[in-house]
Amino acid sequence: MIKLSFTEAMKIGFIGGGRLAFALANGFISAGLAKPDEITASCHPSDLASAEAFKSLGSTALFENKPVVERSEVVIVSVKPDVVVPVLREVRDLPSAKNKLFISVAMGVSIASIEKALPPEARVIRVMPNTPALVKEGAAALARGSKATPNDADLGRKLFSSVGTCDEVPEYQMDAITALSGSGPAYVYMMIEALAEGGVRCGLPRDLALKLASQTTLGSAAMLRTGGHPAVMKDNVTSPAGSTAEGTYFLEEHGFRAAVIGAVKSAADRCKVVNQQLNN
Q1: Which of 28, 40, 102 is nearest to 71 (CA)?
Q2: At what angle do helices 184-201 and 206-224 cross, to 10 degrees?
Q3: Which among 131, 128, 127 has a CA at the least distance from the CA of 74?
Q4: Which three-class secondary structure state does DSSP give residue 163?
Q5: CA triplet 190, 168, 177: central angle to 5 degrees?
Q6: Residues of the chain with pLDDT > 90: what percent?
Q7: Which residues of 177-203 are buried (b: 16+ CB within 10 A; e: fewer)?
Q8: d(Cα 35, Cα 27) in Å, to the nearest integer?
Q9: pLDDT digits over 95-109, tens only?
Q10: How many helices (H) and strands (E) does the chain have?
Q11: Strand arrangement of the beta sheet that strand 101-104 belongs to
């Protein structure tokens, strides 16, 4: 087994060269975790734009998967969930496959299914990232497979922390994480859109309302990351009988928090159904 070092640039391959793969590659390069010429990606033959994007980094873009595995120490599987097992079966007979660390970022494909599609010696990590990784503000969680080592988990955290945050979790929590941070950007975008619409209703120009709503969301999240609790911070901006108190009362009266909690729970339930379909 090859032991990977954090102090040396790694040879990283991507099976699947879409937007997330490109964002990850860019983040790894910026963090000094990989050199551009030691990154290899396989793209769909029709996806010339993704191939050109990787070439613009100084990396290698191919239209087949086996050379990616042969050239890499870490292989990131970034294809659609229903394609994960077929592409891994395609490369499993390569002599070098058993020495690799495979990291899957596909939603819903279990570690057991991934390990079954690979040589018994292969090490596997499953990661649930989210789309803000495209702007290096992602929130990811990883779970390690049966052969993955603590060093592999540390490496996974190091890689995904280069485009945001990354925490290790037991795999059974992945459905909840997918529902919260994976789907969460959609909920936040809806809230920002609603805030802006409220501003428009009160007479603000639409572009200004959207700018204020976006920056307010960004600033509020940044304040939370300093270590405060959301309830305390809410209270700090809520004066007795003030406008914020009136607004938060309206939200409570109309079930705002219950709706958000319900959205996460509904998404998690849907994840369980999809996982059963993918892993049968």
Answers
A1: 40
A2: 130
A3: 127
A4: coil
A5: 25
A6: 87
A7: bbbbbbbbeebeeeebeebbeebeeee
A8: 11
A9: 989 989 999 999 899
A10: 12, 8
A11: 60-62, 39-42, 12-15, 74-77, 101-104, 123-128, 138-144, 164-168
CA distance 39 to 14: 8
Q: Return d(Cα 102, Cα 104) in angstroms, integer.
A: 6
Distance CA 234, CA 163 (A): 29
Per-residue model confidence as pLDDT tens digits over 131-176: 999 899 999 999 999 999 999 999 999 999 999 999 999 999 999 9
State whether residue 95 is helix, strand or coil.
helix
- Grouping H, G, I as helix, E, B as strand and the rest as coil, residue 111 is helix
d(CA 189, CA 192): 5
How does DSSP classify residue 40? E
pLDDT band at 265 (very low <50, low <70, confident <90, very high): very high
Tell whether pTM > 0.85. Answer: yes
The residue behind tokens 């969460």 is 184
Give the list of residues 6+ apart from residue 98 with CB closer than 8 angstroms, or none.
119, 120, 121, 122
* 3-state SS, residue 131: helix
Joined tokens for residue 275: 């996982």
